[in-house]
Amino acid sequence: MRALKFKLSGATAFFKKPDVNSFAYFTYGHIHKIAVLGILGSVLGLGGYAAQAERKKGKRAAGKKAAGKNTENTDEYPEFYQVLKGGKISILPQKGYFTKKLQVFNNSVGYASREKGGNLITREQWLENPCWHIYVLEDGLPEEVFSRLGEYMTASRCVYMPYLGKNDHSAVIEECGVVELKKAGGSRIDSIFIKGAAVLGENTLDEDELEFWYSEVMPVGLNGCYNFYEFEQLMMTNRSVSNVAQMPDVYECGGRVLAFF
């Protein structure tokens, strides 16, 4: 089994949580799968949400002329997700927790706010100096897509500029290459994994090591109607995992045990 591996980092990142927007916009603690697929799509030049909206707008106009005809809906997802949704990824953070800081902006262009003075105050929570190693499994992607991804990324090529959540946060992609994987055993997982798939032990593998536990509900897919996020409880821990050998898509590479989802 092969995978495309690369190091992904930046000075800051912002992966917006969709559930709170009253006082401030908050970020997930790590990059999530949809954001990773978006970065891969930008490398290949695949369209995103804006391009999908434009296509739908054009088809609605054309549909009025072709009323009654049975046309296939090819705009269920943004192009990047339509092409890459079958792929499985593994996210290996450089560390379990990245510092978060609240940034405050003033937007005084006039049309941004109807408040007195026309000044909109925006607050965003940013990750500082995040860094992950990302693995993209060959299985699940069309052969031509995986090959082109490997070709572009090892040559430091991209069609669109990749960023970490918003275009304020430039992404640095380096250490790209195709690596060989082997099926994992043992009783640990180094990467982020789906909590419900694992049976956790009571202790850490090293009895002298302090227990670490990170868990968050994060996006792992898009639904086909409104492109809302589909969520799973993800986690990362140094506690033992008793069913590593039975878990699907858990592989070892360079001494690291990686869970793909």
TrEMBL record:
One of its GO terms (biological process) is defense response to virus. Keywords: Antiviral defense, Membrane, Transmembrane, Transmembrane helix. Coiled coil: none annotated. It comes from the Bacteria. The chain crosses the membrane at residues 31-51. This is CRISPR-associated protein Cas5h. It comes from Anaerobacterium chartisolvens.
